């Protein structure tokens, strides 16, 4: 049966996916290129380095190593300026209800994020101490859809991969969970996240009974 839960951060627990979008868009525009929502979809769940590589690829552009690093730093600075203005009530609707239920029932849960800013953000919304394990962009080398981040999280929780449920808003993240042999729950558009085992528009659509069902199910 399912024994543990793993949550992605950006776009699942907090609405920071929109800040990543704005920061990448600014970077692309500053380099003289358009940046579409469809392109952004392909960057969700993807590490900072890999994201910039993809953008440069779309723009057919090459940067020196120094300029590449400078652009990454600028993007992050811009992103963090949005994060700075976040309030601690910016946890996405319905998320706290699920986390509180897991806490109450002593069901372990971890964070599995590609972000190097994950710990900062969790502290900002007062969730840092609630997770049994945190695995983020500072702990992993391989970007989603590689399952590494979730496999490390499962190991830290002492639970087998097949007994884990992963919540993800990105295509790459859903694929990572599937490749890792975990149950994947997509948060977002059904058409985009069609590879997930279940999809909900957001956490407010998830009933506690559904969580309980997952815990009973293989
Ligand atoms: C998450 C987000 C991505 C972001 C990545 C790295 O996976 O979905 O949009 O690029 O983390 O985040 P960072 O905060 O380290 O730049
Ligand atoms: Mg995400």
Automatic annotation (TrEMBL):
<feature type="binding site">
    <location>
        <position position="51"/>
    </location>
    <ligand>
        <name>substrate</name>
    </ligand>
</feature>
<feature type="binding site">
    <location>
        <position position="10"/>
    </location>
    <ligand>
        <name>Mg(2+)</name>
    </ligand>
</feature>
<dbReference type="InterPro" id="IPR006439">
    <property type="entry name" value="HAD-SF_hydro_IA"/>
</dbReference>
<feature type="binding site">
    <location>
        <position position="144"/>
    </location>
    <ligand>
        <name>substrate</name>
    </ligand>
</feature>
<dbReference type="InterPro" id="IPR010976">
    <property type="entry name" value="B-phosphoglucomutase_hydrolase"/>
</dbReference>
<dbReference type="GO" id="GO:0000287">
    <property type="term" value="F:magnesium ion binding"/>
</dbReference>
<dbReference type="InterPro" id="IPR010972">
    <property type="entry name" value="Beta-PGM"/>
</dbReference>
<feature type="site" description="Important for catalytic activity and assists the phosphoryl transfer reaction to Asp8 by balancing charge and orienting the reacting groups">
    <location>
        <position position="144"/>
    </location>
</feature>
<dbReference type="GO" id="GO:0005975">
    <property type="term" value="P:carbohydrate metabolic process"/>
</dbReference>
<feature type="binding site">
    <location>
        <begin position="8"/>
        <end position="10"/>
    </location>
    <ligand>
        <name>substrate</name>
    </ligand>
</feature>
<feature type="binding site">
    <location>
        <position position="168"/>
    </location>
    <ligand>
        <name>Mg(2+)</name>
    </ligand>
</feature>
<comment type="similarity">
    <text>Belongs to the HAD-like hydrolase superfamily. CbbY/CbbZ/Gph/YieH family.</text>
</comment>
<feature type="binding site">
    <location>
        <begin position="113"/>
        <end position="117"/>
    </location>
    <ligand>
        <name>substrate</name>
    </ligand>
</feature>
<feature type="active site" description="Nucleophile">
    <location>
        <position position="8"/>
    </location>
</feature>
<feature type="active site" description="Proton donor/acceptor">
    <location>
        <position position="10"/>
    </location>
</feature>
<dbReference type="GO" id="GO:0008801">
    <property type="term" value="F:beta-phosphoglucomutase activity"/>
</dbReference>
<feature type="binding site">
    <location>
        <position position="24"/>
    </location>
    <ligand>
        <name>substrate</name>
    </ligand>
</feature>
<dbReference type="InterPro" id="IPR036412">
    <property type="entry name" value="HAD-like_sf"/>
</dbReference>
<feature type="binding site">
    <location>
        <position position="8"/>
    </location>
    <ligand>
        <name>Mg(2+)</name>
    </ligand>
</feature>
<keyword id="KW-0460">Magnesium</keyword>
<dbReference type="InterPro" id="IPR023198">
    <property type="entry name" value="PGP-like_dom2"/>
</dbReference>
<dbReference type="Pfam" id="PF00702">
    <property type="entry name" value="Hydrolase"/>
</dbReference>
<feature type="binding site">
    <location>
        <begin position="43"/>
        <end position="48"/>
    </location>
    <ligand>
        <name>substrate</name>
    </ligand>
</feature>
<feature type="binding site">
    <location>
        <position position="169"/>
    </location>
    <ligand>
        <name>Mg(2+)</name>
    </ligand>
</feature>
<feature type="site" description="Important for catalytic activity and assists the phosphoryl transfer reaction to Asp8 by balancing charge and orienting the reacting groups">
    <location>
        <position position="113"/>
    </location>
</feature>
<dbReference type="InterPro" id="IPR023214">
    <property type="entry name" value="HAD_sf"/>
</dbReference>
<feature type="binding site">
    <location>
        <position position="75"/>
    </location>
    <ligand>
        <name>substrate</name>
    </ligand>
</feature>
<protein>
    <submittedName>
        <fullName>Beta-phosphoglucomutase</fullName>
    </submittedName>
</protein>
<keyword id="KW-0479">Metal-binding</keyword>
């Amino acid at each position: 049966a399912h024994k543990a839960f793993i949550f992605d951060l950006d776009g699942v627990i907090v609405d920071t996916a929109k800040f990543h979008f704005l920061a990448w868009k600014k970077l692309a525009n500053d380099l003289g290129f358009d940046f579409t929502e469809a392109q952004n979809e392909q960057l969700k769940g993807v590490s900072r380095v890999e994201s910039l590589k993809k953008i440069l690829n779309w723009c057919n552009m090459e940067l020196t190593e120094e300029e590449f690093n400078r652009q990454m730093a600028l993007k992050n600075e811009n992103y963090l300026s949005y994060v700075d203005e976040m309030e601690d009530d910016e946890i996405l609707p319905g998320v706290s209800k699920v986390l509180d239920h897991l806490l109450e029932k002593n069901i372990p849960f971890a964070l599995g994020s590609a972000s190097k800013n994950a710990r900062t953000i969790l502290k900002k919304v007062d969730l840092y101490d609630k997770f049994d394990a945190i695995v983020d962009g500072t702990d992993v080398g391989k970007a989603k859809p590689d399952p590494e981040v979730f496999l490390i999280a499962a190991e830290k929780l002492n639970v087998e991969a097949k007994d884990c449920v992963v919540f993800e808003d990105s295509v790459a993240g859903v694929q990572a969970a599937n490749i890792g042999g975990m149950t994947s729950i997509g948060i977002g558009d059904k058409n985009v996240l069609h590879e997930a085992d279940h999809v909900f528009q957001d956490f407010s659509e998830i009933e506690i009974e559904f969580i309980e069902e997952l815990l009973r199910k293989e």
